[in-house]
């Protein structure tokens, strides 16, 4: 398995696997994270996968006998992954996310429709017909970076970002769609809100979604939304 | 119990941070100045990773409702117990019903207070650190407020030994040792800092002029700086050509440059990933020093090799180990005073 290895500061190495949005790249990333989870090398602190890379944080003091810890960890990483073949991603988990579109929950739905010359229902139809892949989790706890949104419902970021975006809002920014797990400031156009929590601080793992998951949205009514929130679903 | 009589600017419970959850987007948090945290904990007999209280620029007033062993480390503050100045970088025993006023930062910006036993709080995702933005961890996920009551765990055997030996050193309002932590071990606090960096992963995307400017100019720390990141003002740093990057991992000390050309140094409460080009990376050995910078201070950056950075990190580890052994020896000889 080929990759380019370089340092991120003095306590992490960055493994780069090639172009984005290729299944080959994704397979290599999954291979690395699976092997790290299985083997848990003593020097491993943690790792962060992204679109095209995995950054591995290591404990410098585990290489007390070696002259140069970075060189030592580079050899360890090569030993672990050089001779591996990328795993086959056989089955993906599919997670279905209910969304209450428009109204108070999606104050920018109208604007997204107008920008694209569509009706509100058409925007909802297009957004719910997509199958999205979670490329990575980052930015905020449980926040999924998704690919797979139709170019027919793109919308630029708002010129005046909101200081406060309610948790679980579903938004669009450029060609991307995403869900804000916690309240943050942000410039995405908000088209709806899900009643489902994405960040689960008391569970393991603390995120509903994981890199590699497939995701679908489906529309719900206000009554259904309230029922979800009250735990009736 | 410790009662908050008056809150400071931002008083949060922190430890070594939330480790292992960044892949789920959960930020690491933890003390800004890790050396002061580790030393403060050593001074009261705690494990180095125990939860401490971190305070920024203006500290709180705390009433100790019972006798307690504590240590104050970090930037230079003006702490007092019942109106009597109290030294930093030493173990201190406070009497029941003592009022500790942390005061304000005269140099540096952050102080940590460790108490023997550590704070009795629930761990969230393996850590006591407060994550303000998501409102969890530490004390109810927030900064301390007037009226809050902090309970403290039972001190361990080491702390109890310290406690006993210190009882021979009574002064008017508190008990303390004759020695304090050597100056060389403390983060160097001043008004202008030279911070050592490694080249960032996207350094070469910047114009040669900008790369030179970054290392030759002085930057001022902006008022919008906080535990998440330091916003610096200085010469505009430009890319050779516009470049949209995909988000990738960032870390403590990453220097990223958004489109306005003004660098941001990512600190303890940083996001896990970022899409701005990274011009530099502060070496780990200098992060505790950088943690003491405050808005208005001036910063310069100096590039060193990765080899040097890792050797410096080892030196810090050795010094802390020596301190731990030193304290241990004094303690077992019965002469902690």
List keywords for this structure.
heterodimer, A: about 230 residues, alpha+beta, Gyrase A, domain 2, Cyclophilin, 2 domains, 7-stranded mixed β-sheet, 4-stranded antiparallel β-sheet, 5 helices, 13 strands, elongated, B: about 325 residues, 7-stranded mixed beta barrel, 6-stranded antiparallel β-sheet
The ordered string of helix (H) and strand (E) elements of chain A is EEHEEHEHHEEEEEEEEH
Percentage of β-strand residues of chain A: 25-35%
Q: Can you name the CATH architecture of the largest domain in chain A?
A: Beta Barrel
Q: What structural class is derived from the secondary structure elements of chain B? A: alpha+beta
Please work out how many helical segments of chain A DSSP would assign. 5
Number of helical runs of chain B? 5
Rg calc of chain A: 20 Å
Lateral strand order in the biggest sheet of chain B: 13-20-17-18-15-14-21
Number of domains of chain B: 2
Determine the fraction of residues in helical runs of chain B and give it as a percent range.
Answer: 10-25%
The largest contact between protein chains, plus residue counts on each side, is: A-B, 47 and 38 residues
CATH class of the largest domain in chain A: Mainly Beta
Number of strands of chain B: 21
Report how far the terminal alpha carbons of chain B are from each other.
Answer: 26 Å
Identify the overall geometry of chain B.
elongated
| Strand fraction of chain B | 25-35%
CATH homology superfamily of the largest domain in chain A: Cyclophilin-like
């Amino acid at each position: 398995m080929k990759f380019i290895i370089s340092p991120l500061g003095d306590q992490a190495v960055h493994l780069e696997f090639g172009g984005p949005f290729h299944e080959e790249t994704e397979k290599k990333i999954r291979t690395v994270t699976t092997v790290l989870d299985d083997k848990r090398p003593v020097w491993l602190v943690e790792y962060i996968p992204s679109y095209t890379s995995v950054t591995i944080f290591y404990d410098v003091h585990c290489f007390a006998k070696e002259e140069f810890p970075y060189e030592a960890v580079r050899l360890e990483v090569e030993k672990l992954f050089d001779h591996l073949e990328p795993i086959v991603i056989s089955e993906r988990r599919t997670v279905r996310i209910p969304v209450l579109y428009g109204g108070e929950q999606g104050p920018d739905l109208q604007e997204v429709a107008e920008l694209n010359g569509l009706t509100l229902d058409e925007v909802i139809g297009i957004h719910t017909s997509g199958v999205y892949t979670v490329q990575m989790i980052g930015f905020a706890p449980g926040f999924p970076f998704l690919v797979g949104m139709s170019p027919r419902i793109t919308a630029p970021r708002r010129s005046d970002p909101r200081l406060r975006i309610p948790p679980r809002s579903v938004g669009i920014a450029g060609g991307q769609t995403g869900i804000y797990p916690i309240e943050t400031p942000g410039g995405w156009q908000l088209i709806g809100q899900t009643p489902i929590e994405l960040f689960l601080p008391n569970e393991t793992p603390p995120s509903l979604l994981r890199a590699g998951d497939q995701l679908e949205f489906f529309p719900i009514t206000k009554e259904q939304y309230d029922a979800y929130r009250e735990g009736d679903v | 119990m410790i009662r908050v009589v008056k809150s400071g600017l931002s008083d949060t419970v922190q430890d070594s941070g939330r480790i292992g959850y960044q892949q789920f987007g959960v930020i690491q948090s933890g003390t800004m100045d890790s050396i002061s945290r580790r030393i403060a904990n050593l001074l009261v007999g705690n494990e180095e990773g125990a939860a401490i209280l971190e305070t920024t620029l203006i500290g709180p007033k705390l009433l100790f409702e019972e006798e307690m062993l504590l240590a104050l480390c970090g930037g230079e503050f003006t702490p007092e117990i019942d109106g009597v100045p109290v030294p930093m970088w030493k173990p201190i025993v406070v009497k029941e019903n003592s009022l500790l006023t942390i005061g304000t930062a005269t140099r540096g910006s952050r102080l940590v207070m460790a108490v023997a036993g550590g704070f009795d709080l629930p761990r969230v995702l393996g850590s006591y650190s407060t994550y303000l933005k998501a409102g969890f961890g530490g004390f109810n996920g927030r900064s301390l407020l007037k009226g809050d009551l902090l309970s403290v765990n039972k001190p361990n055997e080491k702390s109890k030994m310290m406690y006993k030996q210190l009882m021979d050193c009574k002064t008017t309002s508190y008990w303390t040792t004759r020695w304090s932590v050597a100056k060389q071990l403390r983060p160097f606090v001043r008004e202008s800092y030279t911070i050592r960096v490694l080249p960032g992963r996207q350094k070469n995307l910047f114009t040669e002029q900008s790369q030179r400017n970054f290392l030759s100019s002085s930057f001022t720390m902006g008022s919008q700086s906080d535990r998440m990141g330091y916003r610096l003002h200085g010469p505009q740093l430009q890319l050779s050509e516009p470049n949209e990057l995909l988000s990738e991992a960032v870390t403590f000390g990453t220097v990223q440059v958004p489109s306005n050309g003004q660098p941001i140094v990512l600190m303890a409460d940083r996001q896990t990933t970022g899409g701005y080009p990274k011009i530099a990376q502060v070496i780990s050995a200098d992060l505790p020093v950088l943690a003491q910078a405050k808005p208005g201070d001036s910063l310069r950056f100096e590039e060193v090799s990765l080899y040097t950075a890792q050797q410096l990190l080892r030196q810090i580890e050795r010094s802390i180990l020596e301190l731990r052994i030193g304290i241990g020896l004094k303690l077992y000889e019965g002469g902690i005073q």
